[in-house]
Write a structure and sequence with these properties.
The protein is α+β, with helices and mostly antiparallel strands. It has a single domain, classed as Luciferase, domain 3 (Roll). The protein contains two helices and six strands. It comes from Bacillus cereus.
Amino acid sequence: QVFGMAEGLVNYTRLDDPEEIIIHTQGRPMSALDEVRVVDENDNDVQPGEVGSLLTRGPYTIRGYYKAEEHNARSFTKDGFYRTGDLVKLN
């Protein structure tokens, strides 16, 4: 299975992954250089197993939308992480 978005971050599972991983997760990032954070409403990292907002930064994640400064200010952190808008739980 593969999960991804146009802005970047593609995750995958392999056929030989445990059934628990295949059925209940989105897998692992395609690139070892992808960075993933799960944060609360104040951008503080949450503990493993807690729900938070997904942030990502990596080699194929966009750095900004063309001619959209206000949107970019809402969509990216100061250190370049993209705010996906997804609520997730990191195991």
